[in-house]
Design goal:
six-stranded antiparallel sheet; 26% strand; alpha/beta
Length: 280
């Protein structure tokens, strides 16, 4: 992967070519899908990388705002295939409990088509897809942690459409408070069942027990145990830091239940770069 092509002193300028809300309007968590186009300026990226956005203006101390990092939500050949663009999944941070609203997230969510944005990066060399097309991907995420999972899924979907997909399995465990707050819910329903295996977990559905991604993982223990034992399987975890412990605990329980030696297996997954954690 290319990294750090543009720093804060020499950012690249991108133009907004799309900005749409990707969960139901009126929900507390407002999430946007934003497309940035780089025109004729090279900005190569891979699924799993991120970029930094420089919001205009200065902070309370009169200094420029620090760059805010966002995972790329589109595959390597662009949000629109063959175009020099990429997309981001951004949740508007309104601020609560005495905390101010998120400067950069509100800036991005309010952008209009034709606006320009200062971008740095790209960043990241460890949360990448395996090159081997027969590899299996297990993607576990919440909220905007779905961005890199969307990028990986869309790249595999395009490979499949072009006859280049060789059968690696895709599993997605995706959590949100409610169905209405889940980003990309509609497009997810249109993906073929023989292409991707999707488990959704909602923790705040009225009248329903709370479900988290680790609960759906335990319900699919047999499938996950088989993948844990498969040297071609890669596991990706992205979302709030609070989810990481629960996900790792679920993987450990599933391994134990299948008679697998988790300390040895977990160490091998880390050593071989097949367990990818990106929580914040």
């Amino acid at each position: 992967p290319y990294t750090n092509l543009h720093g804060p002193k020499q950012p690249i300028t991108a133009t907004v070519t799309g900005n749409v809300q990707v969960n139901e309007a009126g929900t507390e968590n407002e999430t946007h899908h934003i497309v940035l186009d780089f025109g004729h300026l090279p900005f190569p990226v891979l699924e799993g990388q991120s970029i930094g956005i420089l919001a205009p203006g200065v902070d309370a101390h009169g200094k420029p705002h620090h760059a805010r990092q966002y995972s790329i939500a589109s595959p390597r050949n662009g949000e629109r295939a063959g175009y020099n663009n990429l997309s981001l999944t951004v949740k508007r941070e309104r601020g609560q409990d005495g905390h101010p609203p998120g400067v950069c997230s509100n800036y991005l969510c309010d952008l209009a088509v034709g606006d320009t944005v200062q971008v740095i990066g790209p960043f990241g060399a460890s949360f990448l897809m395996p090159n081997h097309p027969k590899s299996h991907l297990v993607m576990i995420c919440t909220g905007t942690g779905s961005a890199p999972m969307r990028a990986m899924t869309e790249w595999r979907r395009r490979q499949r459409a072009g006859g280049q997909f060789e059968g690696g399995r895709l599993m997605l465990f995706f959590g949100a408070r409610t169905q209405q707050e889940l980003p990309y819910f509609g497009p997810l329903q249109k993906l073929p069942k023989d292409f991707i295996d999707i488990e959704l977990a909602f923790s705040r559905t009225p009248g329903q027990p709370r479900q988290y991604v680790q609960d759906r993982m335990r319900a699919r223990a047999a499938d996950l145990a088989a993948l844990l034992a498969d040297s071609q399987a890669h596991f990706y975890v992205c979302g709030l830091k609070a989810m990481e412990e629960g996900v790792l605990q679920a993987l450990q329980e599933i391994a134990h239940g299948a008679g697998l030696d988790w300390p040895t297996l977990g160490a091998a997954l880390q050593r071989e770069g097949r367990l990818h954690l990106e929580t914040y």
